[in-house]
């Protein structure tokens, strides 16, 4: 009889631990903040800002790398892959720096159309699409994101 009770207590304990544990959630991509476009003459532009992720878990996560495809007005202009080792505290935001230099060739634009766009203060749609590699509990997993923003390019 004692052995039966021990077995039931053990099964109940394992069941309670399984119910209490929840699987880790993927961090949410919140968008890009502090985005700046620095026009470098008529030859290109430098885009920088902070990609913001929110960690919804009760444990720390580590952001290992980010692979992102940047598109301007629906045209792919650049692929970026960056390695990081950034720790995100539980239930908090973490920022990842973005710094990209685009040339006229990357933008598929000629000198005249670029000059006209800058003089008119034209808005361009910039899209960031990719994935972030996150590590939690010793396991790594990818988090996809897709974010679009309107940016004014002017001299």
TrEMBL record:
Keywords assigned: Signal
Signal peptide start and end residues: 1-22
Start and end residues of each Late embryogenesis abundant protein LEA-2 subgroup domain: 55-147
SUPFAM superfamilies, sorted: LEA14-like
Top-rank taxon: Bacteria
Listed InterPro entries: LEA_2
Name this protein carries in UniProt: LEA type 2 family protein
Species whose genome carries this gene: Roseihalotalea indica
Lineage: Bacteria, Pseudomonadati, Bacteroidota, Cytophagia, Cytophagales
């Amino acid at each position: 009889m004692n052995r039966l009770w021990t077995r039931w207590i053990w099964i109940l304990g394992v069941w309670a631990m399984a119910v209490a544990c929840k699987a880790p959630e993927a961090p949410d991509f919140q968008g890009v903040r502090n985005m700046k476009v620095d026009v470098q003459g008529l030859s290109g532009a430098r885009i920088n800002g902070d990609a913001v992720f929110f960690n919804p878990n009760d444990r720390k996560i580590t952001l290992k790398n980010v692979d992102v495809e940047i598109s301007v007005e629906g045209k792919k202009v650049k692929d970026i892959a960056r390695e990081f080792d950034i720790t995100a505290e539980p239930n908090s935001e973490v920022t990842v720096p973005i710094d990209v230099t685009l040339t006229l060739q990357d933008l598929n634009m000629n000198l005249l159309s670029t000059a006209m766009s800058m003089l008119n203060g034209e808005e361009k749609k910039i899209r960031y699409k990719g994935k972030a590699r996150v590590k939690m509990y010793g396991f790594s997993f990818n988090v996809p994101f897709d974010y679009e923003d309107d940016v004014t390019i002017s001299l």
